[in-house]
Write the structure tokens for this entry.
Amino acid sequence: MSAKKKGATKSGATDAPVATTASLFGDEGNRDEYLALVAELLEHDRRYYVDNNPSIADVEYDQKKKRLDALEAAHPDWVVAHSPSKRVGHTPLSGFAKVERAVAMLSLDNTYSAEDLTDFYSRVMRGLQGAGDKRVPELVVEPKIDGIGIELTYKAGVFVLGATRGDGLIGEDVTQNLRTVKNLPMMLKEKVDLLVRGEVYMPRDGFDKLNAERLSAGEEPFKNPRNATGGTLKQLDSRIVAKRPLRVLLYEVVGEVPGIATHSGLLDYLRRLGLPVYPDTKTVGSLDALLADTKVWQDKRMSLPFDVDGLVLKVNDLSQREVLGFTARAPRWAIAYKFPAQQGTTKLLDVELGVGRTGVVTPVAVLAPVELAGTTVSRASMHNWDQIARLGVMVGDFVLVEKAGEIIPQIVAVVKERRVGRESELRAIPPPSHCPECGDVLIKRPGEVALRCPNTKPCPRQLREAITFFCNRDAMNISGLGDKLVEALVSARHIRDLADLFSLTKAQLLSLPRLGEKSADNVLFAIASGRAEATLSRFLTALGIHGIGWVWAQKIAEQYLSLEQLLRTPPDAVYRLLVGIHGFGEERAGAVRDYLSDPQSQALLRKFVSLGLSPTEPVASTGPLLGKTFCITGTLSKPRGDFQKRIESAGGKFTSSVTKKTSYLIVGAEPGEDKRAAAIKNSVPILDEAALEALLRGETP
Ligand code: IVH
């Protein structure tokens, strides 16, 4: 698999001839070639991540990257800080250095209404007229991304420093972290010195995925994309930052650029330099046009891939900006316009019970409808009964509702003052004792707060949720099975367990009300292609085993390679192997063992196999390391992830524990004794980094 883009080549990319391994690694290269290769790879990164328009095929990119890695390994003294190899992060820092700046990063005054905006516009007009400028000011309208402000320094076109805002004058040096941000160019298209400001943020889909991973790893989810960005930027270990989906967008230049007289001109200039610039900026020439545009934005904001908490309005003409100047804390030529409130007070009418895929029963608040950030909210999540007890909330209460991360509304507090005189209307919310769907007695697992339906019946609601999860894009990727259809299939008893999906017939589908010939064919086609494309890791993810998201499902799949192999292995042996994998943990390994030894799931898995679904995990089919399995212990000259990628793209497999199946253990500085002992016990050859490099070049060490 491509080290970088995982099959995402856009149309327009060409399959260029690929250099042979010999021509790649056969010569020593020279420094000029190395520097040219750095620049070339950075330009490809930029085309891919900034322009969304790659001009090279993945394989070709990977070959060039391999050449770069080989040159850097052979000549560590050549390596430059802006090399693409630095994108994967670096050894952790002990703290962030302070960065003092000459031009403070100021804040913006906020406005909340059309009246406030009218006032701002008149203030700007008066300010200009007072200075003898009779022109009607033009304003640029930009989204206000809810991220973290940053300042980037480029010297002779090379990214050399990235700093946070801090207190405005003194920020923190987060260069190492920002180098890992994929759409932040390490090099500009021109060799200019530039100080540029903008926002680092986390797109919403990346945020959702990160939180899902954190939840399945038993970690606390981030409250919203902004918190996730802040938390990530403060990480001392940039290798963690490299795994988080941060992006930057830029919107201001510090200092003058000869020949450019407007802000919109500056934004164009930044685009020409190859920098990612705020999208959708618009120049308006009147107050009416400005007010109209704020309305357009209130709808548009929800369709953007990132959170926007308002707009920023800026005077376009740079000489007019100069005339208007600053107050102590903010410019007079710009203002933030915040979208209507995300919080509101409303009455809790009732609490309904939801049953999830794993049987967790959750309280769902039914609210008197309230407008929040432009949408009407009438339901909110209450998580669990511990949360209800913490809030002390009762049915009939007035509650404060907030849109967290702008998606799922939450109850954040009870307005206790509004209980006075209404005490008799209030009703407590006790935890339920039985599943609202199937009537089974609910249980609590040790150490968990959630109430669960044990699913002994089985529970139709759980099955519906499990089917939807199974078909999810990151799981079996079966599209077209919407909630209504799943519900109909379950209640018609055409699907009684997940495996029944694969024996579904056209006749069964056509027997459902309002389902035509064409839709039936589409559903069957989607199921067939899901089956055809299923890998073991997708399949294991789709089963929804407690704590096993796709990251861990991949680890399991790497070990067993096929469902049949996994089923042949005794559950206790699976447990022993999985607990040996770094980070897997006893709880997760235990959940897998429990799942595999449960007669009900054993029957289900056998049924999948009998219906022709026995997924395998693909392994690279070429390369000098084909069929070899590697494990690394101790510190090597580059992060372990680098070697992992190189081993995998050379056809090898990378594992985090030593077993009989391991071909080589690679030992670096301060190795772990366990792995070394395991290697000796299993007669696994132990090699150093130089020997690994030789193997990667196709030589025998
Ligand atoms: S201009 C002096 N433009 O909002 C001008 N800021 O509340 C300062 N922000 O600290 C910034 N989007 O982090 C500007 N299009 C945009 C922005 C933006 C988001 C942030 C920025 C700033 C904060 C002020």
Remarks:
- Residues 31-49 form the longest helix (19 residues).
